[in-house]
UniProtKB/TrEMBL annotation:
Name of protein: protein-glutamate methylesterase
Species name: Deinococcus hohokamensis
EC category: hydrolase
Organism placement in taxonomy: Bacteria, Thermotogati, Deinococcota, Deinococci, Deinococcales
Sequence ranges assigned to domain CheB-type methylesterase in this UniProt record: 1-189
PANTHER family, per the entry: PROTEIN-GLUTAMATE METHYLESTERASE/PROTEIN-GLUTAMINE GLUTAMINASE, PROTEIN-GLUTAMATE METHYLESTERASE_PROTEIN-GLUTAMINE GLUTAMINASE
Length: 347
């Protein structure tokens, strides 16, 4: 195990201003490697490393698979790739998405905690939903330090609030105080191991890190991590197993996709919404067609046929209104799309 301290940071919506402010506070001789997952659109080239590189004295670059971990080097996850760590190097993979995300904050945090244990400091910043909570819990259980941005100053407080609810956080501070705190903590990290995980938790961590690295989930034993849930994966329709972590439900399918309870609800709700809009489209198209057929009958003098088509069009229009209300209410049940993914996070 490397003795180099690691600071792993996770952010989503509203995270870029927080990252810029935080990196601007770190000194040029910062003695830890820094790795960042910021949720960004998967199909847009990222300018995030260049933006963050102008924030302070530390060098910031997009993570490259196989690069060594170096003190004072900041590495940012590439679009649509997981950023992980090995003992002494960076690992970039195209493993299954987790909580609908690739890169995943949880995947980075778990991989850091798996090998580097008490040498890891995890930081959760502004964002929606709960990516980062499970990974921060793992860092804490493996003897590392857990830090969360103060929810009241975060642009989006869902991720900080989720972490605070589920993890025994060591520090909850505004970004303006994080730089000095990190510098102090990094220079005083303990040398002794502080792992408090059970054997079963260690085994699950090993499997989940392997999945994020792109290894075969079935061969790793993903189906042995929990009980069958009777639910299916929204991405691949594979069977999901469910298990508890710190009293909260999590899910994995046999191909490797992972979900917290909140992210799974969001995906299931989105599926219902999509189907409702498809049904609404079919009904509205039938209304347009029946009106045209009615008009044709009317033009040919077939008033009875025209009335029949017009009546059916009214019935279909009423049904479409019901389905439209269903689609809109279902949309409100979900957590909505992450603003960080609607456009390039480099804006």
């Amino acid at each position: 195990m490397s003795s180099l301290p690691l600071v792993v940071m996770g952010a989503s919506a509203g995270g870029i201003p927080a990252l810029r402010a935080l990196l601007g506070q770190l000194p040029a001789d910062f003695p830890a490697a820094v790795l960042i997952v910021q949720h960004i659109a998967p199909d847009v080239p990222s300018l995030l490393p260049e933006i963050l590189d102008r924030s302070g004295p530390l060098s910031v670059r997009q993570a490259v698979d196989g690069d060594p971990l170096r003190p004072g080097q900041v590495s940012v996850a590439p679009p649509n790739q997981h950023l992980l760590v090995d003992e002494n190097r960076i690992v970039v993979t195209h493993g299954p998405r987790e909580n609908r995300m690739r890169p995943s904050i949880d995947a980075l945090f778990r991989s850091a905690a798996y090998l580097h244990r008490e040498r890891v400091i995890g930081v959760v910043l502004s964002g929606l939903l709960d990516d980062g909570t499970s990974g921060l819990y793992t860092i804490k259980r493996r003897g590392g330090v857990a830090i969360v941005q103060s929810p009241e100053e975060a642009q989006f407080d869902s991720m900080p609030l989720s972490a605070l609810r589920e993890v025994e956080v060591d520090h909850c501070v505004p970004v303006t105080r994080m730089g000095a705190l990190l510098d102090e903590l990094v220079r005083a990290l303990p040398q002794a191991e502080g792992n408090t995980m059970s054997e079963a938790e260690d085994r699950r961590l090993e499997v989940e890190v392997g999945i994020s690295r792109g290894e075969n989930a079935m061969a790793l034993g993903v189906t042995e991590l929990g009980e069958p849930s009777l639910l299916t994966c929204p991405e691949c329709q594979g069977a999901l197993v469910q298990f508890e972590e710190a009293g909260r439900l999590r899910f994995r399918c046999h191909t490797g996709h992972g979900y917290s309870g909140s992210s799974l609800l969001s995906e299931v709700t989105k599926g219902v919404e999509d189907k409702a809009y498809q049904m609404m489209r079919v009904l509205e198209e039938s209304v347009m067609l029946m009106r045209r057929l009615g008009a044709q009958c009317e033009g040919q003098g077939d008033l009875l046929g025209a009335e029949n088509y017009y009546n059916k069009a009214q019935e279909a229009e009423a049904r479409a209104s019901v389905v439209r209300a269903l689609a809109q209410s279902t949309e409100r049940l979900g957590y909505g799309a992450d603003p960080a993914l609607r456009t390039s996070a480099d804006d």
